[in-house]
Amino acid sequence: MALAEVFQGLGTSQTLLTVVSLALGVLAAYLYLGRSLPEGTPPLIKGDWPLIGPTGFWTRRWDFFREAAKASGNFSFHVGNRIVVAVSGDEARRAFVESRHLDASAGYAALFAGAPTVPKAVDTDQEDYNEQHFFRRITAMLKKENFVKGLDALISDTRTRLQDLVNDPKGMTDPFESIYGIVYQLTMRTVACNEIANDRVLLDQTLDMFEKIEAASSAKLIILPWFPFPGKLRRLWYGGKLYMIFKKIIDDRAKTGRKEDDPLQFLIDKGDNVSEILTFILGALYAGQLNSGVNAAWVIVYLANDPYWRGKVWEEVKAMAERYDSDTSKSIAERLASAPLEAWETELPTIDLCLRDSIRLNLVGSMFRQNQSKSPVKVSEGAEIPSGAFAAYPIGDVHLNPEIYANPEKWDPSRYLPDRAEDQKIKFGYLGWGAGRHFCLGMRFAKLEQNIILAFFLAYFDFDKLVDENGKQITEQPPSDLNSYSAVKPKQKIYVKYSVRG
Ligand code: HEM
Ligand SMILES: *[C@@H]1O[C@H](CO)[C@@H](O)[C@H](O)[C@H]1NC(C)=O
Ligand SMILES: *[C@@H]1O[C@H](CO)[C@@H](O)[C@H](O)[C@H]1NC(C)=O
Ligand SMILES: *[C@@H]1O[C@H](CO)[C@@H](O)[C@H](O)[C@H]1NC(C)=O
């Protein structure tokens, strides 16, 4: 039954392809599974099918981790021919985020696979790409001085996009389209190039390609990464198209000698070659988009249903606008545009609380690591990840734990206020921006863009209703999909009904 579900998930239209490749893979995996796990590795879970592993990992990830951990504590399973050790509990979480030998990039590359990469067919150099290059460049790009310089552009991008909503007579918007699109434009502005950030058509086209690449990633591609499933071909196709769009821009600048004041120019001036630049830009856009875009939209959805927090945020936004521009003949949105970077970063603490609890609910799935240590090292007792194997920590183990977060499935920013401080109850009690050795490098930018987008949305619009596509009110808070692999847009479309503030 569960296995049938997985086969369905694997795509019935390609059944033949799937069956043939599964048969091949089963053989390989069978040989592999015959090997026993090194001592100290938690035992293999029941229902660990050859090749596919446990079906629940693919069909309902959080339920699977939670039920299996309850039954067997830490446990191991297979994904293709890889061994994954699922760990949970306080001590394991701590080792997971702090261990020097557990590598995050390799973990996600093998087991997550939603990110676009430069297709090999187009770029034969990519194997040489040095991860340190990515971290160095993104750190330089996301420095404070660049935000000071870029603030006006971020504000003007946001206001232009919101003006589209002002002009739209329908007065309702799906924030997972509109707000998500604004986040994409701001991300493009901050880690990529002006040619696209200035061009609404190119923005929409390239965002569509990113989304197609993401949608084409599936269990199959993770289990058999080398097999040319249609999804893999789609990923290559759209990856290739993105590559060509950026390459054309780079070539054009080289040919005409034109310089821009933007992140791409920074990379070109550093002497990076086309292959390095493209790998960087695709990675940075992806890292910057999904969580930021999905959470910005969710916060607006939560606020639409919550007069208390909406009122509090609005008070803060209004106060900030009034503080930096005393001209009462102007609109709050106009006055807001005078606030300096420091104000944007420190004077909207309620938005931060709102975002914090949205991330807790929407950073779902699991964190991955690979043990890249070849030789035994002394680590604290407990679950051992064999050399080359993977570790998975389901984020719900802490974020949805009712002993830490009261009523965990409810969005409630007040849980972080000093009198409750639920996230401080235990060490690494909140993983929303990473912890230990891997902390989000984009947090400062992500918070800044959330603040700008939300503050201007409140400054332009009054909103207190969620509706469906026919304009019928939705009173129940739509739930987040706690079983998905990563932050996702809700399955059912939600619209926010708004009126333009006078
Ligand atoms: C609401 C928005 C965001 C959330 C919730 C978020 C969350 C996270 C988390 C939880 C991690 C650690 C993952 C792990 O340890 O396994 C992380 C890492 C990272 N994030 Fe973010 N992020 C956001 C926005 C951004 C943005 C806008 C950028 C860049 C433009 C970015 C760039 C990165 C990078 C480069 C890393 C890797 C750091 C490392 O491996 O050491 N993130 N993020
Ligand atoms: C680009 O730079 C990388 C790293 O320096 C190098 O490995 C690669 O061969 C270069 N590619 C081209 C086309 O020059
Ligand atoms: C990673 O593998 C090495 C070599 O087998 C082992 O000594 C080490 O304890 C492992 N690390 C973890 C965190 O399990
Ligand atoms: C997993 O292993 C860790 C480390 O030994 C231990 O503290 C934790 O309790 C285990 N988790 C479960 C659910 O048994």
UniProtKB/TrEMBL annotation:
Signal peptide range: none
Keywords on record: Heme, Iron, Metal-binding, Monooxygenase, Oxidoreductase
Tagged with keyword Metal-binding: yes
CC cofactor: heme
Domain of life of the source: Eukaryota
Gene3D superfamilies: Cytochrome P450 (1.10.630.10)
Matching InterPro entries: CYP450_sterol_14alpha_dmase, Cyt_P450, Cyt_P450_CS, Cyt_P450_E_grp-IV, Cyt_P450_sf
Heme keyword on record: yes
Matches recorded under CDD domains: cytochrome_P450
UniProt record similarity statement: Belongs to the cytochrome P450 family.
Protein name: Cytochrome P450 6A1
Lineage, uppermost ranks: Eukaryota, Fungi, Dikarya, Ascomycota, Pezizomycotina
